[in-house]
Specification:
alpha+beta; 52% helix
Length: 344
């Protein structure tokens, strides 16, 4: 509690004491039992009460978050040109009084929710976009009284400066929304919309002694019909997106099948090429072998006879061959027992 408030409280106590003493003195006088020094006590308390009341009426303590506008009966303008600053100040008792104004930040909210806004019930701002769609905007304006223009605010608005915030904000929001299409308001141009509103509102309130600290676009709601159309559009877009995903999936599956088939074909070609190459190599090897055999036979004609003889079984005694059959190989002639006999 500041000293000005203490003095006012003390003045009240002194006045109560004066009334109590006055009543007591009058009661004693009525009973023919006058109080000793009663009159002096009454006068003393009265003088003290008047002095303390006068001093307490002249002292004003201004809190840091406040400024005081002095209304003066002795000033030709009816008020002081400068507002009282924080701290203890002196005014002319009974000829001047102080109206306090807060200079701290304040918030004014307009909302569709009944319990959120400054006005009970639906206080959202209905506005129409450039393409004729009606939307409902919830917004908050954070502002403060300019400490250097408190006297101006008192003269122009007094304690009704909040009405200025409400009226200007609602009008500016409607004007700004009308410059954008509904899709832009809710997506690509939302930041531009907020900036446009804040700039216009700042200029308006500053002309009236207020400071705009921030503008908050809290929510954008649509009419029931438009909300239903948006929902249907979103459903259709989701279905189209789903169909697109299915098509992509089928394309990927077909591509995978083609890759598998291509791989199998390449493998078959590679395998066939390998088999053909193997046959060619084998044929070349056989041809080379035959050439070598022919070359050996040219140089060694009796090699076949040798091979023939080595292939005969060691226990052959008699060989029967068809009569008159020509023989390519001359059979060896044997004599005596134990040899092989050829009977034509």
């Amino acid at each position: 509690m500041n000293i000005a408030s203490l003095l006012k409280s003390f003045a009240v106590v002194v006045w109560m004491a004066w009334f109590a003493i006055l009543a007591l003195v009058m009661l004693r006088a009525a009973r023919q039992k006058p109080m000793k020094n009663g009159r002096s006590l009454i006068i003393t308390l009265l003088v003290a009460a008047v002095i303390i009341t006068t001093v307490s009426s002249g002292l004003v303590f201004i809190n840091p978050q406040e400024r005081g506008v002095v209304i003066s009966a002795v000033n030709p303008a009816g008020y002081r040109q400068e507002a009282l600053q924080p701290g203890l100040s002196w005014i002319i008792p009974f000829a001047e009084n102080v109206v306090l104004y807060p200079v701290s930040r304040q918030t004014y909210t307009m909302s569709i929710a009944p319990s959120e806004g400054a006005v009970q019930g639906d206080d959202s701002i209905a506005a129409r976009t450039l393409d004729g769609q009606e939307i409902y905007i919830d917004a908050s304006v954070i502002f403060a009284i300019d400490p250097t223009k408190v006297v101006q605010v008192h003269i122009q608005w007094q304690d009704r400066y909040v009405e200025l915030i409400r009226a200007q904000a609602r009008g500016i929001i409607r004007d700004a929304v009308s410059q954008y299409r509904v899709e832009e308001v809710v997506s690509t141009k939302r930041f531009d919309l907020v900036q446009r509103i804040a700039d216009a509102l700042r200029a308006k309130v500053e002309d009236n002694g207020l400071i705009l600290n921030d503008f908050v676009l809290r929510n954008i709601a649509f009419s029931t019909e438009y909300s239903a159309s948006i929902e249907q559009k979103q459903i259709a877009e989701q279905q189209a997106q789903q169909a697109k995903l299915v098509v992509e999936q089928k394309k990927q599956e077909a591509e995978q099948v083609r890759e598998v088939a291509k791989g199998a074909a390449d493998a078959a070609v590679t395998r066939a090429q390998g088999e053909a190459d193997a046959r060619i190599i084998q044929a070349e090897a056989e041809a080379k072998a035959m050439n070598l055999i022919a070359e050996v036979l040219r140089n060694n004609p009796n090699l076949l006879n040798y091979q023939y003889i080595t292939k005969l079984s060691s226990n052959i005694q008699v060989m029967l061959v068809p009569s008159g059959s020509p023989f390519i190989l001359p059979f060896p002639q044997t004599a005596g027992s134990g040899g092989t006999t050829v009977i034509p």
